[in-house]
C-alpha cells in the first residue's frame, strides 16, 4: 500500500534512509513528508483530469508551512478554513486571487482579514453576507464572494458527509435564491458557487454522481445570480486507501465526467472556471509518522511495543478521528522492512489510556527498544488534527524531505 521505497530493510524518505533521517531530525516522534511524492501526485492527477479543471489544495489536510509552500507552487489555488490558514496560504506565496475561504463560523475579524487580503469568501449564511457588506463599506474594498450551497443530495459512501440534509455548512439550496438577491442588493462582488458534499470517498461512481448533481444544481441556481458565474467549485472528496481490502480510487471515470461537465459549462456557464479542491488525496500518501520503541513487553503471552509517540500526535491512526470501527492503519518497523512479519504485535503509545493504540494484534517483525515504528498514509489529518497537549509529552516535529 505504501508509496515509499526501501533499501536494505530501511524506508527511504526523499532518498534518505530512515535511521539517518531520525538522526537528522534530532528526535522521535516526527512526521516526514516527501516532496517528490507530493509532486508526483499532482502530476498524476493533472494527467487524469481535463486541462480545464483547476486544482486547489485544501490546507486543512496539512497546514505545515513548508508543505503548503511546496503545494502552492504546484496547484492553481489554496482553500483555507480559518484566518490562521489564510495567513499560512499568503505566506506560502499563493496569489490572493487563487485563495478561497470556507467555514461555518467565520468571525467578523476573520471576514475582515479575508476582505482586506482580497480572497474569495464562500458565504455560508445570511448573517455573513450582511457582515461582509459592513466590512466592505468600512474598508472601501468590495468583498469577493461565492455562495457555499448545502446541496439537496448526499455524497454516497463518503467517510464524512458534509452536504445534504440538515448541515451547519453552507446555505440550503432552496434558500440560495433569496441569499443571491440579498448579495445583489448589498453590492457584494458575486463570483460563483461552492459545493462540498463530503470527504474520504473511494468510489468513483459516487464522486461522479455528486459532481454531476452539483453542476446541475449550480446551473439552476445561476438563473438567480446577480452576476455571471466566474467560479464553480465542485468540491472533491477523493479518498485514499487506509485499511486492508480498500482499493485505490479510479480516476479515469472522474476525469471523463469532468470533461463532460467542462464541455457543458462552456455553453451553460460561459467564462466560469471549474475548480476541484482536494486535501487528503494530494498529501495523505506522501507522509509518514515515525516513533521509537521505548519498551517491549510481553503480557500473558501477548507482545506489546510501547513507543514514544501515539494518539497525542496521530489521533486518526488511533481510530479516534471519525472512525466508527477501529481498524489498523498500515504500520511497519521502518528499519526492519525485510524481516518476516509474523509476530502478532500490539503497538501502543506512552499515554496512560487504552485509547492510545497504534496497531492492534498486527503481524510484525521481532522488534526491540530503539527500533523505529512507521505509520504510513499519515500526510493528512495528522499533527494538526491531534491533541498534542494531552498528557504533556513533547510535540512531534514535522519535516519536508
Ligand atoms: C475538509 C475539506 C476539504 C478537504 O477534504 P479532503 O477529504 O481532505 O480532501 C475540502 N473542502 C472543504 C470545504 C472541506 O471542509
UniProtKB/TrEMBL annotation:
The keyword Secreted does not apply. Residues 38-283 form the Orn/DAP/Arg decarboxylase 2 N-terminal domain. Pfam families: Orn_Arg_deC_N, Orn_DAP_Arg_deC. Coiled coil: none annotated. Keywords: Pyridoxal phosphate. Gene3D superfamilies: Alanine racemase, Lyase, Ornithine Decarboxylase, Chain A, domain 1. InterPro entries: Ala_racemase/Decarboxylase_C, DCO2ase_PEP1, De-COase2_C, De-COase2_CS, De-COase2_N, Orn/DAP/Arg_de-COase, PLP-binding_barrel. Residues 30-379 form the Orn/DAP/Arg decarboxylase 2 C-terminal domain. Belongs to the Orn/Lys/Arg decarboxylase class-II family. PANTHER family: DIAMINOPIMELATE DECARBOXYLASE, GROUP IV DECARBOXYLASE. This is Pyridoxal-dependent decarboxylase, exosortase A system-associated. The lineage of its organism: Bacteria, Pseudomonadati, Pseudomonadota, Betaproteobacteria, Rhodocyclales.
Amino acid at each position: 500500500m505504501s508509496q515509499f521505497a526501501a533499501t536494505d530493510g530501511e524506508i527511504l524518505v526523499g532518498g534518505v534512509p530512515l535511521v539517518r533521517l531520525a538522526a537528522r531530525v534530532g528526535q522521535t516522534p516526527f512526521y516526514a513528508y516527501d516532496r517528490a511524492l507530493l509532486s508526483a501526485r499532482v502530476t498524476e492527477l493533472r494527467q487524469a483530469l481535463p486541462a480545464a479543471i483547476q486544482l486547489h489544495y485544501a490546507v486543512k489536510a496539512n497546514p505545515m508551512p513548508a508543505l503548503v509552500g511546496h503545494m502552492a507552487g504546484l496547484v492553481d489555488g489554496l482553500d483555507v478554513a480559518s484566518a490562521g490558514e489564510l495567513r499560512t496560504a499568503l505566506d506560502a506565496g499563493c496569489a490572493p486571487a487563487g485563495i478561497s475561504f470556507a467555514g461555518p463560523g467565520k468571525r467578523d475579524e476573520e471576514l475582515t482579514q479575508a476582505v482586506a487580503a482580497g480572497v474569495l469568501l464562500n458565504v455560508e449564511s445570511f448573517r455573513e453576507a450582511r457582515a461582509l457588506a459592513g466590512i466592505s463599506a468600512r474598508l472601501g474594498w468590495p468583498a469577493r464572494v461565492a455562495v457555499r450551497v448545502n446541496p439537496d443530495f448526499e455524497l454516497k459512501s463518503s467517510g464524512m458527509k458534509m452536504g445534504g440534509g440538515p448541515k451547519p455548512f453552507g446555505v440550503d439550496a432552496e434558500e440560495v435564491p433569496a441569499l443571491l438577491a440579498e448579495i445583489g442588493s448589498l453590492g457584494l462582488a458575486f463570483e460563483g458557487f461552492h459545493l462540498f458534499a463530503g470527504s474520504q470517498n473511494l468510489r468513483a461512481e459516487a464522486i461522479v454522481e455528486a459532481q454531476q448533481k452539483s453542476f446541475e444544481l449550480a446551473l439552476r441556481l445561476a438563473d438567480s445570480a446577480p452576476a455571471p458565474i466566474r467560479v464553480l467549485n465542485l468540491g472533491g472528496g477523493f479518498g485514499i486507501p487506509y485499511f486492508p481490502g480498500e482499493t485505490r480510487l479510479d480516476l479515469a471515470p472522474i476525469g471523463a465526467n469532468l470533461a463532460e461537465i467542462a464541455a457543458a459549462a462552456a455553453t451553460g456557464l460561459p467564462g466560469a472556471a471549474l475548480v476541484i479542491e482536494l486535501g487528503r488525496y494530494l498529501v495523505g500518501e506522501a507522509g509518514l509518522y515515525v516513533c521509537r520503541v521505548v519498551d517491549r513487553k510481553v503480557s500473558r503471552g501477548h507482545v506489546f511495543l510501547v513507543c514514544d509517540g501515539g494518539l497525542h500526535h496521530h489521533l486518526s491512526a488511533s481510530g479516534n478521528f471519525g472512525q466508527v470501527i477501529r481498524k489498523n492503519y498500515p504500520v511497519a518497523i521502518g528499519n526492519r522492512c525485510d524481516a518476516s512479519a509474523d509476530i502478532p504485535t500490539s503497538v501502543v503509545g506512552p499515554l496512560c489510556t487504552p485509547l492510545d493504540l497504534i496497531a492492534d494484534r498486527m503481524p510484525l517483525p521481532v522488534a526491540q527498544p530503539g527500533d523505529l515504528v512507521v505509520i504510513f498514509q499519515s500526510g493528512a489529518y495528522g499533527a494538526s488534527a491531534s491533541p498534542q497537549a494531552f498528557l504533556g509529552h513533547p510535540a512531534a516535529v514535522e519535516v519536508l524531505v
